[in-house]
Amino acid sequence: MPAPRSTVRRGLAAVAALPLLAVAATACGYGSEAKDDDAKANVSAGGKKLSSDTVKIGYFPNLTHATALVGIEEGTIQKELGGTRVESTTFNAGPSEIEALNAGSIDIGFIGPSPSINGYSKSQGKGLRIISGSASGGVRLVVNPKKITTLDDLKGKKIATPQLGNTQDVAFLNWISEKGWKVDAQSGKGDVSVVRSDNKVTPDAYRAGDLDGAWVPEPTASKLVSQGAKVLLDETELWPDKKFVITNIIVSQKFLADHPDVVEAVLKGSVATNKWINANPEKAKASANEALEKLSGKPLPKEILDPAWESIEVTDDPLAETLKTQAGHSVKSGLLKEPNLRGIYDLGPLNKILKAEGRPEVADAGLGVE
User: Fold this and answer.
1) Strand 213-217 to strand 158-161: parallel, antiparallel, or no bridges (unpaired)?
2) How many CA within 13 A on the CB side of residue 333?
3) Selection from 292, 295, 284, 162 nearest residue 217 by Cα
């Protein structure tokens, strides 16, 4: 039985990497270092160190990574770690975060389902485990209302996704296929022109008239709406119970084996953060925006922040059944060979925490470690 999810909705998205594709990362190297002294509570005073002096955590400077943004900003993750120090790094794309995890440059990461699937598949099941959920939702199809008024109007139009093979790209290709339209997955050419465009430049491309719309995560969708675009479809409408995983928490298998106490502490911090977000939605929204300002140099304006924040639900549940479905979409689109995902989840530490709080355990959809 799935654990109850936070009723608060939050926004952003994660970018994916496919092992069969040479996808360029948009981060600089492994990413940009977050300043540790900017956090409100980076190291608990007098706290006892766990089995590692540090834990290196990676995430995106996006609202769908609200658990990481708020958990690090407010110190709720650090509190559980005591004297073990958090070192945080941000990324702009899934491929670079998976690369960093494999290289040992980070130990734990907040990341989307597609890079989780592909990272696990590429390492033949030896690289990572998914140890928790983090967020659901936060993806919308927004369009130029002067050119597109119905879903059928998308035929012949130029629609952006963040990256070839990323989570939103796969979702859009699958939607196109279900419409009976044809698009070459690699080139994006066909009945709809799928334009792979970095989320940072998509608003400018839309403003210039180079795009007719975009299937994108928050806050990019709300940025486009602020420029006159209209929401034509919220991806939650395509999923049972209007829920699908957009952000997971992953860990390298080596770090999990060597430092299970550290992993458990980070998970306790994540669970505590999601609970705090739920109980304090306005404070949490402000905290996330403060974190974004520190990472990017400027906060999101209210007209973008508010709708983006409302579109995502923070959750400890990894929504494993939806990850299985997303993997099937990748295969159907021709972007991924049928993967063996058995063992991708290790929800034991999370379920231990949930059980101690009197909450129901979360399920792994038959894809857990034996």
Assistant:
1) parallel
2) 30
3) 162
| Closest residue by Cα to residue 70 from 267, 266, 273 | 273
pTM of the predicted structure, to 2 decimals: 0.85
Tell me the three-class secondary structure of 328-367, residue by residue: HHHHHCCCCCCCCCCCCECCHHHHHHHHHCCCCCCCCCCC
Whole-angstrom distance, CA of residue 141 vs CA of residue 215: 4
User: What is the distance between the alpha carbons of residues 177 and 185, in angstroms, rounded to a whole number?
Assistant: 10
State whether residue 370 is helix, strand or coil.
Answer: coil
Cα separation, 5 vs 8, whole angstroms: 9
Task: Find out whether the peptide bond into 219 is cis, omega within 30 degrees of 0.
Answer: yes
What gap in Å lies between CA 8 and CA 273, rounded to an integer? 12
Query: Starting from the edge strand earliest in sequence, which strands make up the sheet with 245-252, in order?
Result: 32-33, 85-90, 54-59, 108-111, 245-252, 128-137, 312-314
CA distance 268 to 157: 46
The C-alpha atoms of residue 264 and residue 161 are separated, in whole angstroms, by: 35
Amino acid at 21: L
Euclidean distance between CA atoms 250 and 131, whole angstroms = 6
d(C-alpha 288, C-alpha 300), whole Å: 10
Residue whose pair of structure tokens reads 């999370």 in the numeric block:
350
HSE value, Cβ hemisphere, 13 Å, CA-based, for 69:
31
Quickly count: other Cβ atoms within 10 Å of residue 289's Cβ: 21
Q: What is the DSSP string of 58-122?
A: EE-SSGGGHHHHHHHHTTHHHHHHTTSEEEEEE-SSHHHHHHHHHHTS-SEEEE-HHHHHHHHHH
What is the chain's pLDDT, residue by residue, as a tens digit (370 residues)?
A: 433 333 333 333 333 333 333 333 333 333 444 444 444 444 444 478 899 999 999 999 989 999 999 999 999 999 999 999 999 999 887 888 999 999 999 999 999 999 999 999 999 999 999 999 999 999 999 999 999 999 999 999 999 999 888 889 999 999 999 999 999 999 999 999 999 999 989 999 999 999 999 999 999 999 999 999 999 999 999 998 999 999 999 999 999 999 999 999 999 999 999 999 999 999 999 999 999 999 989 999 999 999 999 999 999 999 999 999 999 999 998 888 899 999 999 999 999 999 999 999 999 999 999 8
